Amino acid sequence: MVQAVQDAKVVVTGAGGGIGAALARRFAAQGARVVVNDLDADRAKAVAEEIGGLAVPGDASSIVAEARDALGGTVDVYCANAGVGRDGGEPGEPLDEQGWALSWDVNVMAHVRAAHALLPDWLERGGGRFVSTVSAAGLLTMIGTAPYSVTKHGAYAFAEWLSLTYRHRGVKVHAICPQGVRTDMLDASGSAGDLVLKPTAIEPEDVADALFRGIEEDRFLILPHPEVAEYYQARAAEPDRWLAGMNRLQQQWEANR
């Protein structure tokens, strides 16, 4: 058992399947009381029934108050896991502003709104834990989908800002940055996902394992694919070399589309 989450009151958004469901199951197995959130009410209820949790379906941007009430007035851990992967149109193609707006709203602003709702109580109590499911795309980038890459950078930046701003006041923040994970989102990622992500894809349960190791070790950055640390270092140390390598990957993808 991880002592930090035993008896904790936990909310997991986007938990009807994939990474979110794996996180909800792991928290429940560790003795936490879990609210399962998902846009799909049936999926949320199914996971909640499985783990003995509580289903609070709906938009992840606006469920903090209802989830807090369901948990008896307190949220100890909030997992901002809900996300979308959208193609907003490449330069020169028609711009899908709706896709960009949805990506910003779900991948970034839902995290901002949740933190805004949670922080007053956490700061008063001197403790709370915010878990942001980002992506390796938030540290690096992803070919073929500008909205996903850009907004995941935003999600990572917000998690980083939360940590540096409030860690001395007891707020713990973790940013999970996996590459490919065998979920519905990976299945929907098309040929770019087939090329870049599927060869090294892991199971959602592996992501949960990585998070709980990070909680035990009190680490901000959670890398279920450890090699991402090397890529991140290379990107920072030699950006032009890294960009040239990514461009070669882009050309390979274009040649096989």
TrEMBL record:
<dbReference type="Pfam" id="PF00106">
    <property type="entry name" value="adh_short"/>
</dbReference>
<protein>
    <submittedName>
        <fullName>SDR family oxidoreductase</fullName>
        <ecNumber>1.-.-.-</ecNumber>
    </submittedName>
</protein>
<dbReference type="InterPro" id="IPR036291">
    <property type="entry name" value="NAD(P)-bd_dom_sf"/>
</dbReference>
<dbReference type="GO" id="GO:0016491">
    <property type="term" value="F:oxidoreductase activity"/>
</dbReference>
<dbReference type="InterPro" id="IPR020904">
    <property type="entry name" value="Sc_DH/Rdtase_CS"/>
</dbReference>
<dbReference type="InterPro" id="IPR002347">
    <property type="entry name" value="SDR_fam"/>
</dbReference>
<comment type="similarity">
    <text>Belongs to the short-chain dehydrogenases/reductases (SDR) family.</text>
</comment>
<keyword id="KW-0560">Oxidoreductase</keyword>
